[in-house]
# Entry
Amino acid sequence: MTGPPRIASLVPSLTELVCALGLAHRLVARTGYCIHPAEAVRDVPKVGGTKDVNLAKLRRLAPTHVLLNVDENRAETAAALRAFVPGVVVTHPCSPQDNLALVDQLAAAFAAEPGVAERAAALRAELVDELAVIAAQQFAPQRVLYLIWREPWMTVARDTYIARMLATVGWQTLPDVEGGAMGAARYPRIDPAAPWLADVDRVLLSSEPYRFEDGHVAEARALCPQARVQMVDGELLSWYGPRAAAGLRYLRALAAG
# Structure
């Protein structure tokens, strides 16, 4: 590939990371969910959502690189993109620590761009510091139900990024299941009659992808009558990349409250 990169990001967290690396001016496409940082992405063309990408429009924008994520984008999308995009970059961070490799991955992909290496080093240093702080603290164990959807109720398997994020403060998600490398099993539906719901200490109502509101607290409390129910910032707990360190700080504050 010759000339400057033309980057299409089909993942909100990766769009934010591209901007944090100083590459906002190289973005030529994003999804409708890629909303941060607002000023930087406002005029970048949208090409659908993470699951329903407008491939024809994307082809016309002629990206040299498209950024994807195993959880958020479809495998068939990646396959189709390889037919006309020179650099298809697939990511799959599954823990806060994986952000270090993620930053390195994008820094390597765009190493020729001025300032990328320095910005990547700063992001890594901030995250390393926060991981050290959180590892040095003691937290009271909690059995947590993290809700991402209602009608039907849906949660996260223990091998997802969200669950492993919560585990850094001793919060173990229920049910005790793993979802595998990809697919719907990573975000299981909940049987409202499941006996393990009585063991939940804390229910977290995420602000995304379903936008839980105060009116849903009573419904969640009925699901787990013995649990504490609280609203949480889903962006801080589920977005990776440059938001990871801030997410860990937010989580430490939640655990202390």
The two ends are 51 Å apart (CA to CA). The first helix runs from residue 12 to 20. The mean pLDDT is 96.
